[in-house]
Amino acid sequence: MGDPLAFLTIPRRENGERQAAERVNDWGEYVVPLADEALRKQAARCMDCATPYCQIGAEWNGATSGCPLYNLIPEWNELVRRGHWREAYERLIKTNNFPEFTSRACPAPCEGSCTAALPAAPVAIKSIERAIIDRAFAEGWVTAIRPARRNGFKVAVVGSGPAGLACADELNQMGYCVTVFERADRPGGLLMYGIPNMKLEKSVVERRIQLLAEEGIAFVTGTEVGRDLAFREVRKRFDAVVLCIGSGKTRDLAIEGRDLQGVHQAMDYLTASTKALLSGQPPAIDARGKRVIVIGGGDTGADCVAVALRQKCQSVIQFSRRGRLPDQRPSDNPWPEAPKVFKLDYGYEEAVATFGCDPRTYNVLPVRFVGKNDRVTGLVTVDVAFDDRGRLRELPGTERTWPADLVLLAVGFSGVEDHLFAHTGVAKSPQGTIAASRKTYQTDIPGVFAAGDARRGASLIVWAMREGRDAAAAVDRYLQEKKD
Ligand SMILES: Cc1cc2nc3c(=O)[nH]c(=O)nc-3n(C[C@H](O)[C@H](O)[C@H](O)COP(=O)(O)OP(=O)(O)OC[C@H]3O[C@@H](n4cnc5c(N)ncnc54)[C@H](O)[C@@H]3O)c2cc1C
Ligand code: SF4
After folding, report:
1. Is ligand 2 within 6 A of the CB of residue 464?
2. What does the mean pLDDT of the chain come to?
3. Do domains 6-139 and 154-248+414-483 have the same CATH topology?
4. Does the CB atom of residue 472 touch ligand 1 within 6 A?
5. If you measure from the C-alpha of residue 246 to the centroid of ligand 1, how many angstroms do you get, rounded to a whole number?
6. Taking the model in full, what pTM does it have?
């Protein structure tokens, strides 16, 4: 630490953003990184406090506080402050397999629990993380490292999202022969076909997959384990199997008119959009010229807003049952808990720049779809409020009809798709995820492990990577014990 008062004398600055009105005309990343010199100043704001809450990775009150990967944040901040970028990179990759993903798309729970947030503003941790990894790639420090020896064991990783990739990376570097099976046409899971290009460019995902392949990991795409390749066959061919198959069972909205054309799951819409971008073909679901309604107030819905704007929709509205979050932390949400406060995410900023208003409408419940000639033409809603006991109450006389040509359902996920349980035979948890212990990552089938959203339920990239890393260590313990 240089100046112990730097967190007070240097104002926080984070990466910038391209102008909202300009960036909605293309699919490029919207973040503009700060120059390295500015970031060195930002790194100086880190106080190296005795208990670095930024790196504790705990769950409090239903949200994550601190970095789940236990990134060594104060250490790399200090190295960046001194201009020791290479050493900072080496500290960063001790805990984080793919900083280029987290530094672009992580919601940065580290910053919510940074001690400097108490008297001033948090250190710009995510921006500094991105500068370190972008520089490492630019300088050629990130190279394929093939393990010197193989230990003779073969491991199958099913699913190539951040959990599967982190697990495969760890096991490969330990000397295991790793094959990753992926049912989609490209590896990456939601990094590829969930998170839009504006947040995480697909070339960034492809670059990492290429490196992992050069390091010796075999990727088999277009193969659904349990359907295209029997699960028992995989178990026979490999010494251990890790299921990192995500939490892809989407919630639906069982209301009148759900079957009308033009009502789609948000995930189908986002996947179609990225496929179109990568293939140069028109998207299978297109918002061009349409009045779009997004149902669901979460981040998936926000991504749908941003994509619809780029496809030149006529209008876009997003409905949430919940109310608007407060501008400041309420008293029951103290530091170091993740702050539950109002934010104007990138897609909303773009909607303001395009249509002059935030697309979010709060305390609204969809009641039925209306249509003509089997196509959706509108959505009927009522206003709702939560009573003192947290129960949702409809407010009489508040029914409204909203015109719509395209409705996107972004109402969440409820665990692993049912047929995958039938195909693999692993036990289900009460939450609909794969039942596997947090300590051993073992399912009820010996030698079969589970990690990421498939085990913990829909979460974050950073948790998926943490689980992938931990599951790899658990597989290693299991196979080494078997050998002895
Ligand atoms: C639209 C959207 C946006 C998001 N944005 C963010 C964000 O900005 N920041 C963030 O931190 N988190 C975000 N998340 C959450 C984050 O993407 C997930 O928590 C994370 O990807 C989970 O990783 P995973 O590896 O467990 O599963 P996934 O990424 O879901 O990958 C699972 C993979 O398994 C494959 N698969 C499934 N079954 C089989 C089978 N039988 N055989 C072979 N392959 C199979 C699937 O095709 C998929 O590729 C977002 C989620 C969504 C839906
Ligand atoms: S991975 Fe996420 S939580 Fe961890 S340091 Fe990076 S931005 Fe913060």
Report:
1. no
2. 96
3. no
4. no
5. 5
6. 0.97
